[in-house]
Fold each of these.
Amino acid sequence: MLAIRYNNRTFFGLKTVVNMPITSQTAKILDGLEVSAAVLTSVHEAIEAHVQAGGQRPGLAVVLVGKDPASSIYVRAKRKDCERAGIQARDFDLPAETSQAELLALIDKLNHDDNIHGVLVQLPLPDHIDEVAITNAISASKDVDGFHAFSVGRLALRQPGLRPCTPRGIMTLLNYYGVSAMARHCVVVGASNIVGRPMGLELLHQGATVTTCHRFTRDLEFYVRHAEILVIAVGKRGIVDADWIREGTVVVDVGINRLDNGKLVGDIDFARAAEKAAWISPVPGGVGPMTRATLMQNTAEAAGIQVPEPKQA
Ligand code: NAD
């Protein structure tokens, strides 16, 4: 088993190297645990200063429909993040049979509630509810997930408002370590509405040349080999072969996959990619915590509180 030590943590790869416990890793780690903690501290400080000055504490409505186990875990984590950030979480746990009309009525109520600054509806929703209708029913000014058509449209037009959390979190992570996308060739693998597409817009906004690859892309290897910054967001282990990474590439792995032994891994073989990459984000401990911290940052901003972005000391 290949092992990499970083910041007193050990990252294990899948490659077995007999009698060779430590790799020739060249990559530095894009450490989502460190940077998300810095973001949460920054959010907390900004909120407390705002409240001390007589401002209102931000409120986040967290809506969960049904009892999907993964969603329940995510929602619990988000509620915990609220405590850490100084945000008032209001919980709405609804039964799986809640109708679309009932959910829309709740969203309408929350849109008009002055104590609520952000509305989060945990996805996926049960099949009988139209996710697009729900996402677009949330007031754009409370759209802290950044999924509303208006929010993504603003990003596309270089007038960013509330930005989708995962791509924004990735930009914060890169900026923290001084990794700029300006004038670089960035390849995004995956084109979903919540990750791949807005990711491309974020990178374009920073002055990158962006290639987006997706399920219909022919010769994915060709594009990966030409990437200076590579963001992989597919959810298929091994979709990008680590051998395709060129020396010095920045690798951001968004994918989450569970191995048969229960271990969480990303879309790329971390240890092998780390032998060539200049920077790489681990899974877990990379993009995931950045997404969560960014949700808190967006909620503070939806309440009119500016949060300074942390930079490495
Ligand atoms: P999705 O299923 O909506 O989209 C996957 C994308 O991959 C699609 O655009 C599809 O075209 C593309 N794709 C599929 N096969 C491909 C192929 N052979 N070659 C190139 N592209 C291909 O998924 P999503 O919601 O964007 O999530 C992607 C992954 O990221 C999942 O593993 C998800 O769990 C993870 N994720 C992580 C976070 C986080 O915070 N860490 C947040 C969101 C998603």
Amino acid sequence: MATVDLNQKIPNNVGLADDRRLQRALEKWQPEFLNWWNELGPVQSAANDVYLRTAIDVSGAGWAQFDYVRMPEYRWGIFLADKEEGREVNFGSHKGEAAWQDVPGEYRAELRRLIVTQGDTEPASVEQQRRLGMICPSLYDLRSLYQVNVEEGRHLWAMVYLLHAYFGRDGREEAEEMLQRHAGDADKPRILEAFNENTDNWLSFFMFTYFQDRDGKFQLHSLAESGFDPLARTCQFMLTEEAHHMFVGETGVGRVVKRAAQMSAEHDTLDIRPHGGIDLPTIQKYMNFHFSICLDLFGQEHSTNGANYYSMGLKGRYLETKIDDDHVLTDAVYNVPIIENGKVATGEDTALLAINERLRDDYIADCQRGVDRWNKSIRDAGVDFELTLPHKAFHRNIGTFRSQYASPGGEIMEKDAWEAKAHEWLPTEDDRKYVLSLMAPVHEPGKMANWIAPPDRGIHGQPIEFEYVRLH
Ligand code: BYC
Ligand code: FE
Ligand code: FE
């Protein structure tokens, strides 16, 4: 069950060959996916040989095979974590019932919406990152970008499989639409705001994989708790791939920070632009931007959708089964931010209605850990600067703080005063131009662009100077 035959037309561990209808439907979608990949995936990449890992097994160690692959020939497939016998719905009003192997009819619309929203982000991120390969800071980084891209493509397959297998005709229609909405498209944008943003430089890419893929981690964890077993199982396996995306983000930002700190120490100034570095204050601004748009991805603080998804048993909390409470939350409360007398204060909501906020809080705590590590490397270089996550009220477009003007410290301000300060807090046109001006491709194996430190080690035991991508 666990091992996957990569020679099948659609590699899978779901017994696709035994379900001819489903197999035919997915084989019809496959060329549409490839067309999309060729048109809107990584530009000018089709002929490159890329040292990629491909999933061959879903059970723990040894799930990956590493080899040179041309991306259009990547074995995108359908992999579900192994079934856990006797699994139950672990939360909500159906707690204790056997986990559902089919879609519960009364929750069909909600479940479809969750799967569609999750699925939509996957191709969106590939579209957002499609031009980055042209300006890679090293072959090592180019390979990381491509690895992330093919896996996001596979994550789309994961959701499309669920739509095809469990939602009949409207599932197939949703699968088509996944390839029709596009990141940043004026008429048919992607569903969630952050997936329409421009990601045209590598500092943004690393921030994206640190902060935005981490939203993926938390959302996938919540869906991995689902009482709808096929969704839970597919998300469990997606999480193993997700870990690498966040590694790319954490080490990527970490290497830019390390180089900035080195240059700052060497020249005894934070202003390292004359030396071709990305200065720490600019890194802080990019962090403010990416973190704040990602906080929006958790939805409103007070959400009946969130409460319903939970009570229906469709979407749980982070590490639901490890939490010590009744998992029904009829009487529980949760602290939520409110605005009182022009200040951010702490209010109380029912735990059910505050499900989104709780996940956002779990996410923030997880984000902070990498920031602490980056700060250690700044201190180690002997530089007096500290990166800080902005307050959750800062630069928000969903929920309580929408249409508010809060500083990164969390002070609510007048619009004019905020706007006069915004250039200190968010990347300006000039900052963006400067960062973009540094983005020139580096193609010599082992060589790094000047603004980024080399990684500590290579991929899969290979040296850093390994030819991770053979360009053609
Ligand atoms: N943008 O009740 P609320 C990943 C809408 S990332 C635009 O708070 P809910 C990945 C909302 O739809 C993980 N609209 O919303 C990362 C609702 O609309 P209606 C992606 C937004 O439903 C990197 C209204 O506002 N997975 O995998 O509780 C690379 C009321 O809001 C936004 C998921 O998101 C927004 N940010 O929460 C590749 C999991 N936020 O009903 C991949 C599935 C809210 O008024 N999705 N709205 O028309 C969900 O669980 C929920 O849809 C959300 C939103 C948590 C996103
Ligand atoms: Fe993903
Ligand atoms: Fe990801």
